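Continuing the batch. This is chain 6 of the set; chains 1 through 5 are on the previous pages. Same settings as before, nothing changed between runs. Recording input and output for traceability.
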Amino acid sequence: MSERDSKTKSLWQELPLGWQTTNAAVEDAVYDALIVGGGITGLTTAVLLQKAGKKCILAEGKNLGYGTTGGTTAHINTFFDASYKDIEKDFGEEAAKLIAAAGMETLSMIKNLIDTYSIDCDFEYKDAYLYAENDREVKDLTEILASSRKAGINAVEIRENKVPVPFELSVLYTEQGQFHPLKYIYQLAAVFVKAGGIILENTFIRKTEFKDGVHLAESDRVTLKAFNLVYATHLPPGINLVDFRCAPYRSYVLAIKLKNEDYPDALVYDMQEPYHYFRTHEINGEKYLLLGGEDHKTGHDDPEKAFENLISYAKKYYHVASIAYQWSAQFYVSADGLPYIGLLPGGDDQVYIATGYNGNGMTFGSLAGKMISDQILGITNPYAELLNPSRIKPIAGFEEFVSENADVAYHFIADRLSASAIESFQEVMPGTGQIVKYKDEKLAIYKDMDGVVTALNPVCTHAKCIVNFNPVEKSWDCPCHGGRYSISGEVLTGPPRKNLHRIPISDL
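Output for chain 6:
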């Protein structure tokens, strides 16, 4: 079974590893591209470049699908969390049409890769339903319908929503998609390796240097060289402008077995804030209702309460037999609603990033692979200017930009003043973690079920915020930029490159 950056297990992880390779990196070689990150963005980029004749190597810190791709619900859409109404308002009608075209082109590209390389990943075209439950939502949805049509998307009002939730207005979007995300990326990996590409798992890039037109990337076991460096990792490492234009969020998912056959044969979304999303997936003849929602900023709110709320919501509308799986995953929301794909602002030459997908990672991750490979190949991409990470929109996203960064500034200050004055580790309950004050120093303390205590410096190694304990995932999560660490301090995901410093108990 594959591993993921979280303690909770997703429905997809039962899949055995689907690719094998004996390729090894040649340290003296200079590759055309080094892709860091083995999710959908990294593997799409790698396949497209390798098939175009470039010599590529992909480095993944853990195993393929370890990050968000292994925790997605794998909806593939041509409409997005940033609605066409909002895109039109913030960027103009032509931008809305461009994003619509990008969505349709990306769905076609995914289907073409599946057909071309005979990828068995449970892909299905599905209708999608977006529905409103009250007058305010009806007004908003009516405007979304009109703007979707104006952008070129096939959307119509319809008198059903495919789920047992009462509604007042429903909109149908045809020819959307779904698949098994790990089956898809594992077989992309096989295509990449067969074409001569190299994949290095358990290769965490800790340091990079740009010298004489070549990127040198150091891991614990190998140094890699490449002309182009692609960070398919959401936020790139280090402190950069993108840190202040994206906010990390966690979303929660249930895979539910029902007492009846009331599984929706569609992709379905309500308009609550945060919204719920539904679909069905069948594995080994067993159907599962996938229900997601309860999103909140990473390191904020209560993950246990999020699952409780989601389970209560499921039981309100469905005859639940059991919760087969429940998990959470991380995504990033950009300040203006659209992803950042292209050259890293203020970075070294030929460094590419892709982030800010919101809840549309399968679509925008695939689009990013096409856009970045086009840029490296010298092909003009029609979406490059609109999604350029260097774009500045003083209206679109400004309020969100101020809000998110005020929150970051708050955590820089307030977290350093709010430690619980716990005089003894005895007060930390087994199986829990807590930020405590000990001899005027802050410590991140985790006590396992046997009473063994692990003490860490709680200062995130990325931007020096104070981490918070996530009781569901048994991780230390940074509320500023989404860096996440294991209970032993090892980097799980996000922009940090260094582990939290472990403090021997004897030193306290």
